[in-house]
Amino acid sequence: MSLRRLYWAKLAGQWRGGLVLLLCSALEGVPAFFSGRLVELAVDRGFAAGSPATGLVWLGLFGLAALLGALGSRLVWHQLGQVVEPLRDELVTAVVRGVLHDESPPRNQPDASGVARITQHVEVVRDATGGLLVQARGMLVTTIGALAGLVTVAGGLVVPVAIPVVVAVTAFACLLPSLARRQRTAAIADEHMAATAGASLSGLRDVVACGGEPIATLAVYEAVDAQARAAVQVARSGALRSLVIAIGAFVPLLLALVLAPGMVARGELTPGAALGALVYLATTMQPALRGLAATASTVVLRLLVALRRLSETARVPAAQDGIARPDGADVRLRGLTFGWGAAAEPVLRDLDLDLRPGDHLAVVGPSGIGKSTLAGLVTGMLTPQDGRVLLGGVPVRDVPPALRHELVALIPQEAYVFAGTVRDNLALFAPGASDAVLLAAVTAIGADDLLRRLGGLDGTIGHGGEGVSAGEAQQLALARVYATSARVVILDEATSHLDPPSEARAERAFAARDGVLVVIAHRLSSALRAHRVLVMDGRETVLGSHTELLARSARYAELMQAWAPVTGEAATEVPLPAGEAVPVGADVVRRHRISRTTRAS
Asked: What is the full DSSP assignment across 435-482?
């Protein structure tokens, strides 16, 4: 479903709120209908008839009508949020889902265009919808009320007054297509400006390091100039629109001033009726017509352009209503192939892998080789181009999302904590977990000291994780998932900010849960703790134990060779699935290099 269709469907779903707005609008339109008529009665039956008291009574009724209109206006504003805010929330949710399900998202950088869609286009839709429901609706009600009142007071002036109005409205309608095109160009320029500035600022350190400031500055300047040109074109269209509206607003009033005296002299109008007609035209219909045209040329155009742009750049992902029920928590990959784009080189090619409860797999390889992509495929967030990902014997994307989220948990490198209590953060994915379960998770991860520092489960965390370091945020994220019933846990460099002992404790805690543990390694020490290691190196993907890979994979041996001397970590022993223990670490790497040299000679 496109966002445009979603917008109209959700707006139609607010029909109850719309009905309330219509009733409030009728109350708001009371002064527009009665203003001229009450002025006519005040003059003809009061002041002109020598009865000022009667005239004041009619004017008092005019004031009462104005109070009723003000009450209607207040009710309109009160009801507006009930209609607009749920619509905005739905659009924001749809845009965020579209960004998260984008098959080709920006790699290793913020999605500035997606942010622009939320902060600019969605807000334009929200404000424009509110403007239509308040301004355009109010102006329309006022215009209709004024015309109806004019017919009852001075019907002879209706035809000459209507001609310039029709001409102006027709000319304005002819201008709308060009206004829409220029408004759309301005919206695209705004989005391009946001994307260009976001890319330059997010990579500012690299730009300076490479001496690319002139190029980056030029790109931003060009985006700003394009945005300025688009804004100037919109302003010129607005000036032409104002001229057309001025004709439709002032000419009817001028004609009434010219024709009314003669009609009074011929007895076709009373002095009170002539004054009432001027009240309708000058104080009611003229402002209403100008406001209606201004709203149509700005609010409506911005709304349509923003909706079109959202529909072009963000599609609402189809709802996943999978009904498959997995039998267990085995993970099987068969012929798995994935690339970021149809013409791109696949980062995964024909990968076969079996993971059963109790398995502990480490995934290693150079940065950007596709390790996080593999995590996205296993969790069902990405769709493979070829092959299958099976969870408990069924395709992972056919499992109902709610059930899949219970069985599979992914902890990314960027750990998110939220304003609230520590308990709220830890129980985010397990709202029914008892305090004992949460405390046990904290202890298992090794975050007891952190919990005490924060004030226990009732301690508070500030906005944006204020007062919590990056490593502490990762500990909270790890404990949060540990407290769930997830059978498949993927740590995507989720311990990158922890010291090696804390990282080791967290990994061992998850491995002891007897589920499937996949660790996308930040440090190669994670590979030493795993039962098996998957080495990703572009076209070559090798699976085996640590000792097997030292002999079979040159890439793995090179990674170990580069890592062990730098870290200076002591040799350790790692239990293998068969129960045997072998020495690993720098000594193994050195002996492996010696054996390779001996064989070569």
From this structure: HHHHHHHHHHHT-HHHHHHHTSTT-EE-GGGTT--HHHHHHHHHHHHH
Closest to 531 in 3D by CA, of 331, 338, 363, 339: 363
**Structure pTM?**
0.57
Distance CA 149, CA 67 (A): 18
Residue 129: partners with Cβ closer than 8 Å, 6 or more residues away? 11, 83, 84, 87, 303
* 313 phi, psi to nearest 5 deg: -110, -15
Among residues 510, 462, 507, 465, the alpha carbon closest in space to that of 483 is found at: 510
User: Could you give the 3-state DSSP secondary structure of residue 268?
Assistant: coil
Instruction: For residues 391 and 540, give the distance between their C-alpha atoms in angstroms, rounded to a whole number.
Output: 25
Task: Report how far residue 273's alpha carbon sits from residue 554's, in angstroms, rounded to the nearest whole number.
Answer: 99
* Token pair listed for 180: 């829409």
Residue 6 has pLDDT above 80, yes or no: no
Residues facing residue 534 across a β-bridge: 363, 543
Structure token pair of residue 20:
């309330």
411 three-class SS: strand
Determine contact, residues 375/490, Cβ cutoff 8 Å: yes
Per the CB < 8 A criterion, the answer to whether 23 and 76 are in contact is: no
Is the separation of the CB atoms in 582 and 528 below 8 Å?
A: no
Which DSSP string corresponds to 136-156?
IHHHHHHHHHHHHHHHHH-GG
- Tens of pLDDT, residues 364-413: 988 888 888 899 999 988 888 899 999 999 999 899 888 898 999 999 88
CB 454 within 8 A of CB 475: no
Give buried/exposed letters for 270-305 (b at 16+ CB in 10 A, else e).
bebbbbbbbbbbbbbbbebbbbbbbbbbbbbbbbbb
Here the tokens at position 537 are 């190196």
Phi-psi region of 370 (alpha: psi -120 to 50; beta: other; left: phi over 0): left
Task: Map residue 417 onto helix, strand or coil.
Answer: coil
Q: Does the pLDDT of residue 585 top 90, yes or no?
A: no
